Amino acid sequence: MPPRRILAVLASLLLGAAALVAAPVQAQAAPNFKAPFPCGQRWTYSFHSGEVRRALDFVRADGGTTNGTPVLASAAGTAHRFSQPSGAGNYIAVEHGGGWKTYYFHLSAYSVADGQQVSQGQQIGVTGSTGNATGPHIHYEQLLNGVGQDIRINGSALAYPGSYGSYFLTSDNGCSGPGTNYMTWGSGVNVRSDAYLSSPVVTTLSGPTSVWVLCQKQGDTVNAEGYTNNWWSKLRDQNGFISNIYINDPNAQLPGVPLC
């Protein structure tokens, strides 16, 4: 090949390589984040200038108690547990992929293991006021490649008010899927593989938890807190049974829930 032809080919290849290097890298689309608290609950939120990143703090505004309310993953990912007594307290970071991460600060308890895969709407912790907090709330952040982003829920940007009571958010997190949604009560509630006290424990609910009940059946009689009941509920996400005593409903047999 003539020298001039060789130079022309090399120049063409170099230009092509330069174009590839210069091509902009598209940012990874954000997950469809949902509110970090259970389906149907209404919370108010605020922002204060002392925050390091673009965080919002959430407290309940529907008559329920903020402290002890489940904290839910706002999108699927890998959960990691941390503790910072002088700041964030007990907190969870969920890695969602593509550089996206969410933070949930000041938890009173963790509900998942470190490194556990979690689904959107799964309980990851319990609301509290550990660390540097003046009261129970969910400190919530969305980050892209370590940089705090303006928070979006269901694709819509939230406001950044300087005080509570101006803006409100009702959660639709965990509203879909099979089963009927209930809250549990009590702490250290065992979930068993079947509706019998001799059945192996598959997990323990550390505090009030948002659960999905698939069906119910009669099993061993349980006596607790002045109540007696032999009806048990099968929980969808925990893949086991708990006594209906610990389902926050006045009926011994849950209305409208099918038999197992």
Annotate the secondary structure layout.
Blueprint: H1 3-22, E1 42-46, E2 56-60, E3 70-72, E4 77-84, E5 89-97, E6 100-110, E7 117-118, E8 123-127, E9 138-144, E10 147-148, E11 152-153, E12 156-157, E13 168-170, E14 180-183, E15 189-192, E16 201-205, E17 210-224, E18 227-235, E19 240-243
What does this entry show, briefly?
The chain is mainly β and 260 residues long. It contains 1 helix and 19 strands. Strand 18 (227-235) and strand 19 (240-243) form a beta hairpin.
Detailed description of the structure:
The chain has one helix at 3-22; strands at residues 42-46, 56-60, 70-72, 77-84, 89-97, 100-110, 117-118, 123-127, 138-144, 147-148, 152-153, 156-157, 168-170, 180-183, 189-192, 201-205, 210-224, 227-235, 240-243. It has 260 residues and is mostly beta strands. Strands 1, 2, 3, 4, 5, 6, 7, 8, 9, 10 and 13 form an 11-stranded antiparallel sheet that branches. Strands 14-17-18-19 form a 4-stranded antiparallel sheet, with no helix packed on it. β5 (89-97) and β6 (100-110) form a beta hairpin. The longest helix is centred in the first third of the chain and has 20 residues, at 3-22. Mean pLDDT is 88; it is low at 13-26.
